[in-house]
Amino acid sequence: MIVELGAFALILALALSVLSLALTAAGRLRLSPVLAGAGGGAMLASAGAILLAFGALIYAFVVSDFSVSNVAMNSHTDKPVFYKVAAAWGSHEGSLLLWCLVMTVFGGALALARGLPFGLKTSAVAVQAGLSSLFLAFAAFTSNPFFRLDPAPVQGASLNPLLQDPALAVHPPLLYGGYVGFSVCFSLAVAALIEKRVDPAWGRWVRPWALASWALLTVGITLGSFWAYYELGWGGWWFWDPVENASFMPWLAGAALLHSAIVTERRGALAGWTVFLAILAFTFSMLGAFLVRSGVLTSVHAFAVDPQRGMMLLAILGVAAGAAFILFALRAPAIRSGAAFAPVSREGTLVLNNLFLTAAAATVLLGTLYPLILEGVTGATISVGPPYFNAVFNPLMIVACLILPAGPLLAWKRGDLKGALQRLWLAALLAIAAAFAAFLLFEPKKALAAAGLGVGAWLILGALAELGVRTKAFRAPLAETLRRATGLPLGAWGMALAHAGLGVFILGAVVETSFKAEAALALPLGGEVAAGPWKARLDAVRVIEGPNYLAEQGRLTIMPVDGRAPERVITAERRFFPAGGQTTTEVGLDFRGLDDVYVVVGDRAATDAGERAWIVRIYYNPWARLIFLGPALMALGGLVSLLDRRLRVGAGSRAKKAAKPVEPVKAQA
Amino acid sequence: MRRAAALFAAALLASTAAPALAEPPPAPDRPLTDPAQEARARALFGDIRCVVCQHESIADSPAGIAADLRGLVREQIAAGKTDDEIKDDLIRRYGDYVLFQPPVRIGTWLLWFGPFALAAGAGVVLVLRARRRGTAEAPPLTAEEECALAELTADEEAER
Amino acid sequence: MTIFWIMTALVTALAGLAVLSAARRGAEAESVADRDAGALELAELDRLKARGLLDEAGWTAARAEAGRRLLAARRADRRPVAGPRDRYWVLGGIGATAAATLGLYAVFGAPGMKDQAYETRVREWASAPEALEPAQVAAVLGQVVKERPDDRLALTMLGAARFEAGDPIGAASAFRRALAIQPDDAQSWARLGESLVRANGGTVDGDAEAAFRQAVRLDPDQLGARFYLGDAALARGDRAEARAMWSPLIAVLDPSDPRRAELQTRLAEAAR
User: Fold this and answer.
1) Please, what is the end-to-end C-alpha distance for chain A in angstroms?
2) Are the beta carbons of A324 and A279 closer than 8 angstroms?
3) H helices of C109-238, where?
């Protein structure tokens, strides 16, 4: 009964979503707060209904109800409970239900928001209801997780054991929080176009949503990359795989959006850019959903292939994005704000930022879709992978990173470039020194890597320089610096953290990519293999039994080649899952400071002498930790900036009272 | 005894069924003895696509053909070919699909130069627009406007 | 069934209630114009100036731009007014939603279908063991074994059931556990071997052969084990071993049994 209640709730949610669309649209047209309020209520009720449906689905997984097709295909009684729950959102149908849940919950939050002008809020809820109706219809009619099987199979077909990992279980909800969070920005943008009004009040609503979505997406993508690195056993953390790119495009657009929204919130400028980027970010989210689920792209982590569903998703994408962009083309001139600024100013650098991030997103889009397009048009097949992105994406981002530290030091409206550069001379000097030091110290000598390291250092030092300028560090007594530091708005700290985090990431990425080493050998017991300054010796191999797998576990000793650091013993496994017949590797990791020594025990083989041996691969990944620490700092910076707004709502009245004495003076002048 | 025979019968039936077709295991990797050459080989592996896999390079793929390609590349390095020659040879055998770097020809100009053209073009548009707008500043608020504004903010405070 | 429809009616009613109360709150709420917007925006400009991020001339110009925009917006704003018949539209909408939901669910859903939690099904099967399929038997026994992990008999039966149900790897696992409790059970060794052979698609690998040897060592009359050991020996080309393994087997089989002839033929062929 619970499962069927869930199925009913899903259909109820769809109907309520359509009701919400009808009521809010009518409320906006007739300017009726009753209809608009009812529409908001319907959106909240829809969210509640999907929550009920999701609860029913989780229940079905936990009790292993194999009469539900989704459970039969993606679960197994042997699975630990945590992963049974995670399997609820791990399949195409379940994750789509999660998408709809987040969309209606965020729509409900929008409906509950106070302080938005009536027309804007009603239009925005209407657009959000339209989106959720489309996706709910897609879910209910083509990808219904409550499809029943009669007779029910005795046992489930089991989810991929690769996905039985805590990082990966949490990865979809975070990603979807990001993707679907951009839907709120999309709705607000389309509402602004409908109302023909973009002003700082609107910006004040878009910026936190954009920031929160972007921060969630950052954590989600980093978790995925982190999981791939620590779990898959190929030593890499990003491969420009089409599905990875599908999540990276909204991230780039979102990064541009949150910066553009800052300008709109403060000064009302860049209205067109912000609206465009908001529409673009969610369009990329939808495009990503389409690419991953349609089977159109070949990727190691696409969902189950179904071209028909893919076509329907493409249709939804076409309708929603097409309508939004057409509306933008028609109404963009009407939303001009008239807030002027000089080319050299904070607004100016943020325009450049928008430009570079959009070009970067276009690069990723082109690189991902070009093989498809070319094959469709001319029939020629090509592959686009890391060499292309390194050649096109990296230069764009490097130029943007070089400009970045100057931005926060420029004033609004008209900035003093010379003054800003003067304040950065020390940071620039230290960054160049760091690059030289890197060139001299790291082996083998690579000029490009040293330059990249310099860029990373430039970003970190630039962020510190900006904080130093704001707190008058070294130019005023320590007491005053500290007082200024504690008085700095959280937004300033958030910005410094995020920009420094980007620098940290670049440091890690450049050093790891340029100076990593790997080796693979068939090792008998007692054999050794070396990579970079570390080597591994295979001591023992035994068979162990896990809850639903059998494993071959190798015990290895990691020691430095030059003997100048202690030895450590680690284990690495190859697991075999009988229920699904799959094999996974558990990587053996040795953390040595910032570096990772990473060992994988592979298939059995025979040495040349005919002894029993195992293929052992060892990877030396220097500064690998920074690759994941950087984005964590960026997300933290975003969170800190978000808190700033909350604290400022109260501060607004204080500042207003402080501003009062200024006005009479101005009137006299 | 009868039970054993029954099981035995079942087992016989099972064993006379056709054995599953198994793919022969891939040839084992034999790294080159010269570390510089082996490093070159490793670098090349990252750029070559495993043509039967889903977007993987031959460096990590377990497929048989990936192992064959690795062996081929190592052979050619040992025979003294340059990286470009090896890449050209692979393209001759398998087509453009085998390399992760797309070719640069008319059909892919949009791919290679599109983003830079977009950035440059948009940059030019922005510069032109900034020039055209000029530096006309908004004139300061008149006294009446200041009064109206003060009224507005006072209204708001009263409403709150 | 009735409980189900009562629950659905309850859920729909709750949804309707949410919509109605939101409508009432909408009617009572005053104009939702952003009250602080203007003041906050101007205060923001003042704060930027105080922090040195906006110079004097810029502040004046920015304030002018913002001020004019705020004044224009204030003039353009229209206040929302509730219509006289809105209430009926809302009620009608709720009714239409309920009807549509019921209709769609009746078409696309399976109203009568009960939940089939795994444990409930296993209990049902356990209470009526006669008409069960092998997979279901295996499920019941699996439950028994979970409750009594040291029950050797249950483990061996589980292994046999899983073997019949086409899960040779699960069968092997069960037999291994049974043998861990009592290692001198020749029949379980033999069955373990057979499970491993089936899991391997018919070939006798090292683990299976070891299991068969154990079986024959403990009980030389394990005919199944003998068959496979002979098979493996022939595959290695060890005819003597094969003959040693199969002789008792051939002796036991009826002379008219075709399998006896087959074994003899295979031994003869290997001689050549």
Assistant:
1) 76
2) yes
3) 118-127, 134-147, 152-164, 168-181, 186-199, 206-218, 223-236
Largest CA distance in chain C: 114
Specify the residue for token string 């919509």.
C19
- pLDDT 10s digits, A408-437: 999 888 888 898 888 899 999 999 999 999
- CA A249 vs. chain centroid, Å, equals 9
Helices (H), ranges, A471-601: 478-487, 490-515
For β-strands A534-545 and A550-560, DSSP reports them as antiparallel
Nearest to A411 among C54, C121, C135 (CB): C54
| B7 inside 8 A of chain C by CB | yes
pLDDT category of residue A304 using cuts at 50, 70 and 90: low
Distance CA(C169)–CA(A424), nearest Å, equals 67
**Listed ranges A397-401, C141-145, C222-226; the one with the highest mean pLDDT:** A397-401
Residue A669 has a pLDDT of: 37
Percentage of residues in chain A having pLDDT higher than 70: 93
Say if residues A35 and C86 touch (Cβ distance below 8 Å): yes
Domain map (residue ranges) of chain C: 2-108, 118-271
d(CA C89, CA A164): 50
Asked whether the beta carbons of residue C108 and residue A656 sit closer than 8 angstroms, the reply is: no
Mind spelling out the 3-state secondary structure of A594-630? CEEEEEEEEEEEECCCCCEEEEEEEEEECCHHHHHHH
Strand partners, A362: none
Region B43-57: mean pLDDT is: 85
Task: Specify the amino acid at residue A635.
Answer: A
Give how far C258 is from chain A: nearest CA, Å: 36
The answer to whether the Cβ–Cβ distance between A300 and B119 falls below 8 Å is no
Given a contact cutoff of 8 angstroms between Cβ atoms, the answer to whether B11 and C197 are in contact is yes
User: Residue holding tokens 């154990």?
Assistant: C214
Residue A225 has a CB neighbour count (10 Å cut-off) of: 21
CB contact under 8 A, C86 and A35: yes
HSE of A30 in the Cβ direction (CA atoms, 13 Å)? 19
The pLDDT of residue A215 is 97
Contacts of C36 in chain B (CB under 8 A): 156, 160
List, as ranges, residues 160-219 from C with C-beta within 8 Å of B.
187, 190-191, 194, 197-198, 201-203
Express each pLDDT in C152-192 by its tens digit.
899 999 999 999 988 888 898 899 889 989 888 889 999 99
CATH class of this structure's domain C118-271: mainly alpha
Residue with tokens 């059998």: A550
Nearest-CA distance from B150 to chain A in Å? 8
Neighbours, chain A (3 or more CB pairs < 8 A): B, C
Residue of C nearest to B150 (CA): C39
- Round to whole Å and give the CA distance between A81 and A63: 9
Q: Do B15 and C61 touch (CB under 8 A)?
A: no
**Which pTM does this prediction carry?**
0.88
Per-residue pLDDT, A659? 40
The ipTM, to two decimals, is 0.83
Instruction: Tell me, yes or no, if B96 comes closer than 8 A to chain A by beta carbon.
Output: yes
